[in-house]
Amino acid sequence: MAEESTKPIGVFDSGIGGLTVVHALTTHLPNENIVYFGDTARVPYGPKSPQVVREYAAQDADFLMSRDVKMVVIACNTVSSVALDVVQKRAKVPVVGVIAPGAEAAVQASAKRRIGVIGTRATVNSNAYAHAIRQLDPEVQVFSRECPLFVPLAEEGWVDHPATHLVAKEYLFPLTLEKIDTLILG
Fold first, then answer.
1. Secondary structure letter of residue 158 according to DSSP
2. pLDDT tens-digit series, residues 51-72
3. Residue 9 near residue 71 (C-beta atoms within 8 A)
4. Are 145 and 121 within 8 A, CB to CB?
5. Looking at 66, 96, 126, which one is the last position of a domain?
6. Residue 115 is part of a domain; what is its CATH number?
7. Residues of 22-37 as b/e, b for ≥16 C-beta within 10 angstroms?
8. What does 32-52 look like in DSSP terms, one character per residue?
9. In this predicted model, what pLDDT tens digit does every residue of 79-89 receive, in sequence order?
10. What domain range includes position 177?
11. Residues 27 and 104 both lie in one domain
């Protein structure tokens, strides 16, 4: 068991966004070693077909397993929404995605039971967040919106760029009309 505890936790994403998950892990688990794989060569996964995402997810899982990790954290919403089962079958260790924890946090935070979900085309089209949220509370209304430009803007480092602010306004305005009180960045 002591040997198992010294193995690293494997984390992967389609790019660098998963580093926010790594930051949370190192904050809550400061004594853990982490192996991070950001597939920047093939980012973004969101506009790709579910079959291609599933193939990439299998390859990403294989890479982390070759690093002898004790668990895998899928920091990618797209992979979590369309290929969690692939990673669970490939990895011979526990696997955690981001959909269930995100849905739980949103349901707990929402007082009005009106939750917005923004994400890649694949994540939104999978309805994974809406399904997970309704499993927790069938009374919650979920409003989803594709935001395909967010990943390229973030990967470019344009978080505070004027273009990003304009794109965010365009994407988020319809959700403000729905009077959401909680927003999931999926």
1. -
2. 999 999 999 999 999 999 999 9
3. yes
4. no
5. 96
6. 3.40.50.1860
7. beebeeeeeeeeebbb
8. --EEEEE-TTS---TTS-HHH
9. 999 999 999 99
10. 99-185
11. no
Whose tokens are 């299998």? That residue is 58
Domain count within the chain: 2
Three-state DSSP state, 170: helix
> Can you say how many angstroms the Cα of residue 109 is from the centroid of all Cα atoms in its chain?
18
Comparing CA positions, the residue from 11, 79, 21, 47 lying closest to residue 152 is 47
Q: Within a 10 A sphere around the Cβ of 49, how many other Cβ atoms?
A: 10
Which residue, among 13, 86, 84, has the nearest Cα to 46 in the 3D structure? Answer: 13
Nearest to 81 by CA among 68, 95, 94, 97: 97
Say yes or no: 73 and 136 in one domain: no
| Mean pLDDT, rounded, of the chain | 95
Cis peptide before 44 (omega within 30 of 0): yes
Computed from CA positions of residues 104, 108, 113, 115, in that sequence, does the dihedral angle turn out positive or negative?
A: negative
Upper half-sphere CA count for residue 131 (Cβ side, 13 Å): 9
Is the same domain home to 124 and 74?
Answer: no
